[in-house]
Specification:
The chain is 27% helix and 0% strand. It is mainly α. The two termini are 20 Å apart.
């Protein structure tokens, strides 16, 4: 069974692959701009680069 921290790390890693950034970006206190690109580990349901997508992550 996974701990809450392991689930959070896995979710941040998958989101990072989907958003073309590093997982630590979600822990920053300031906005971060990344280039949208289709990476090889991105979810298969996402066919095109994401444009102007805003993700807000808040520490729990």
């Amino acid at each position: 069974m996974m701990t809450n921290n392991e689930v959070l790390q896995a979710a941040m890693q998958q989101s990072a692959w989907d958003m073309n950034c590093n997982p630590d970006v979600f822990l920053k206190d300031e906005p971060v701009l990344v280039t949208s690109d289709i990476g090889e580990k991105r979810k298969n349901i996402i066919k095109n680069p994401l444009h102007a997508t805003l993700y807000l992550m808040e520490a729990i």
